[in-house]
């Protein structure tokens, strides 16, 4: 009887030891599975990166998504915008694989930089044709932060100062060779025959001066709900109603203003600009090809003001995450 009890006790002890060993192995396996799941969740999110949404996020803001993974794996991905072209991505994945007494969770964080497509601009206004200025039309080469953008212009110190080094003929060749490529980055392309004014790409909400519109008076950019993005007009465009655009605006022809147009970011015009019947305000930079040699005219207190901050934010709407080089992970039982 005693021998039987001793044998049973020994068997139970061995069984418990085996169970603990295999349990730890199962937990380790589930932990590794959760770790791989977190990495996969980040990769899935970055593969469908929405540059326009990133550009529209204030610095410090965050978004959360739940990518679809394999069975017994659940994950959430959080993206925090830490700078004009920087973000932190964190994924939390939980493995509930059969045989594990409790869920095993792993966290993976990565820092990333948004790389922008090459765009031909390093000066506030690059004219590849003739231009005349009248009625207080001005160009400023001083890097300016748009009114109310103090918190939106962090992280621009590493951006090169504006310089002009290429010849006009070289810039013309570059423009002609790259124009179709630049048009292809547009989030939206419109026929000017159906458009008389520019409103935000995603929403039709515009900012009234009383709500802190940054380009009409002092105030916070947070008061404006306009989206950032790249937009193209596929022919000559005439602005007949007060308009604005934040991001990259491309006109595949002449641009004529019969009403005010405000652009925050990059304005590229294949033809010429006539801003004598409406005011053009650019915070960022402008590139005018004047392909037909019509000559551009700036008046009506039109202003082109160089802004690295506005350019960087505009570019980030069409950028994509660079190869991720940093990675950290955390175990949670």
**Judging from the principal axes of the Cα atoms, what is the shape?**
elongated
Give the beta-strand count. Answer: 19
- SSE string, helix = H, strand = E? HHEEEEEEEHEEEEEEEEEEHEE
The whole-number mean of residue pLDDT values reads 74
- Terminal Cα separation, in Å? 43 Å
Kindly state the percentage of residues in helix. 10-25%
Q: Biggest β-sheet: count, sense, barrel?
A: 8 strands, parallel
Q: What's the tally of helices? A: 4
Give the helix/strand class: alpha/beta
- List low-confidence stretches: 156-164, 200-225
Domains counted in the coordinates: how many? 2
Q: Rg to the nearest angstrom?
A: 28 Å
Topology:
Elements: H1 2-47, H2 51-56, E1 62-65, E2 73-83, E3 86-95, E4 104-115, E5 125-127, E6 131-133, E7 138-140, H3 168-183, E8 188-190, E9 229-233, E10 237-239, E11 243-251, E12 255-257, E13 261-269, E14 273-275, E15 280-288, E16 296-298, E17 303-306, H4 308-316, E18 320-321, E19 328-332
Parallel strand pairs: 5-15, 6-16, 7-17, 8-9, 9-11, 10-12, 11-13, 12-14, 13-15, 14-16, 15-17
Antiparallel strand pairs: 1-2, 2-3, 3-4, 4-18, 4-19
